[in-house]
Specification:
414 residues; alpha+beta; 8 helices; five-stranded antiparallel sheet; Heat Shock Protein 90
Length: 414
């Protein structure tokens, strides 16, 4: 439109009648133009607009900047409009004209829909080909990882001791690190077994002799010496049991076999203790948030929770309460009882091996010491404190591998 506009000698805008598209001449023909001459104070419209005026927005129009709109057009049909202000040569000099051209929106919409229908089969074929190529690429590219998986299954089944290879150079560093981890784990397990075996064999005979001697002396009336030998045998047995318990623990957090399902393990342990002589007389309360996964070996976590709950059931009068919640990026497990509690000066002694505050209670004094050992292995926060209401509260806190950026605690407050 800008290219065919002319100015008469008296400065009026002149639009030629032979425009390149006849739809400009047919009323509501679907193609329209509209020109606003602010200097001459004239608004010109195509014959196709007939008595309709395009409702162009009254916004700012820098020179040469294209504006696009979707507006209401003739006969209630939307039109797509492109307009801009241009400087054209007039007799008195350059004059700004606001030129707009519009087309029925349904023509563009139909053209777009027709194009989509035409290209859809080709896009579908291309998508199928891309999916097939991706599957083939993944199948070829992941074959080494699949082989690593099968080899790890063989290691787990104790058929082999390491990943043999050869593997592609892209995954060889991973294989080397896995082999190093397997070797470290095997060495640690062998060391633990060796220590346990040495203790068992080394102390079996002395313990047997001491027990027999104590029995002989007791029969001869030497009760004091017999009691001393019995105490000595108990001390050695406590040492053996402690070392055997340590040997069963995972040497380090990196060598754990997996993560612990907190709710499941705590629930299983409670159900087991409910069938014991001490547990049958107690009321058990559990508030266990589902979906908590602690970065602790399941066996070690079971040992930790089992000792805490067993200690609570041993001292509780009527109830034991267990809470496991997610709190500020951590997982917190709390075990409470309503027993007599512990004098504040004796609280630190609870975590020492072999310490028993009441000799009348059954046990070896190793439970909380083993809990302390596990806490050290996994860098857990372990606290023991007396409850205001009476009884003892034991709390274990560890990092939450599934922690979200949200803060706050979920579950019953403590």
């Amino acid at each position: 439109m800008a290219a065919v506009l002319r100015f008469t000698a008296d400065g009026k805008v002149e639009v030629p009648e032979d425009l390149p598209d006849n739809r400009f001449l047919v009323p509501y023909g679907g193609l329209y133009w509209q020109i606003d001459d602010p200097v001459g104070k004239v608004e010109l419209r195509s014959a196709s607009l007939f008595d309709y005026v395009l409702p162009l927005p009254q916004d700012a129009h820098p020179l040469g900047v294209m504006h696009q709109y979707r507006l209401a057009g003739p006969e209630g049909k939307d039109v797509l409009v492109q307009e801009r202000v241009l400087l054209l040569a007039a007799p008195e000099g350059r004059r700004p004209l606001r030129i707009a051209a519009a087309v029925n929106a349904d023509e563009v919409d139909n053209a777009r829909a027709d194009f989509a229908l035409d290209i859809l089969p080709y896009v579908g074929v291309l998508a199928v080909l891309l999916v097939l190529m991706s599957i083939i690429q993944l199948w070829i590219g992941l074959r080494p990882l699949d082989r690593i998986g099968r080899d790890l299954e063989a290691v787990r089944d104790r058929k082999v001791g390491r990943l043999a290879g050869p593997y592609p150079r892209e995954v060889q560093p991973l294989v080397d690190r896995l082999n190093a981890l397997l070797e470290t784990q095997a060495a640690a397990m062998e060391n633990a077994r060796g220590r346990a075996s040495d203790l068992a064999h080394g102390l079996k005979t002395p313990l047997t002799v001491l027990t027999n001697n104590a029995l002989t002396l007791r029969e001869k009336g030497e009760v004091e010496i017999a009691d001393e030998l019995d105490n000595l045998a108990d001390t050695m047995l406590s040492h053996v049991e402690h070392e055997l318990a340590r040997a069963r623990l995972t040497p380090s957090a990196d060598q754990r076999s997996g993560d612990a399902d907190v709710a499941r393990i705590v629930g299983d342990t409670i159900r087991l203790l409910q069938h014991t002589e001490a547990g049958e007389r107690l009321s058990w309360e559990a508030d266990l948030q589902e979906g908590l996964t602690a970065p602790i070996d399941p066996h070690d976590f079971r040992e930790l929770v089992g000792n805490l709950l067993e200690n609570a059931s041993k001292w509780a009068k009527t109830r034991v309460a267990v809470t496991a919640v997610r709190c500020d990026g951590f997982i917190r497990v709390v075990v409470e009882d309503d027993g007599p509690g512990v004098s504040p000066e004796r609280l630190p002694d609870l975590l020492r091996r072999g310490v028993r505050l009441d000799r009348l209670k059954p046990g070896s004094g190793l439970g909380l010491a083993i809990v302390s050992e596990i806490a050290n292995v996994y860098n857990l926060a372990l606290t023991l404190e007396n409850r205001v209401e009476g009884g003892l509260r034991a709390a274990v806190t560890c990092s939450d591998p599934l922690a979200s950026p949200e803060t706050g605690c979920h579950g019953k407050s403590q």
